[in-house]
Amino acid sequence: MSKPTAIVIGAGFTGVATAHDLALRGFEVTVVERGPIVNGTSGRTHGLLHSGGRYAVKDQESAIECIVENRILRKIVPQVIEPNGGLFIAITEEDLAYGELFIDGCQQCDIDIEELTPKQALELEPNINPKLLAAFLVPDGTFDPLRLALAFAATAKKNGARFKLYTEVENLLFDGQGNVVGIQVWDRTSGERYDLHADIIINATGAWAGQITQKVNSDVSVTPTPGVMVAYDQRLIQRAINRLCKPSDGDIVLPQRRMMVVGTTSFTVEDVDYVPVVEEQVQEMLKRGAELIPGILQTKERGAYMATRPLIKESGPGRSISRTFKCYDHKVVDNVDGLITITGGKATTLRQMAERVADMACEKLGIQATCLTAEVPLISYREYYRLPN
Question: Which one, 10, 38, 92, 178, has least CB within 10 Å?
Answer without folding.
Answer: 178
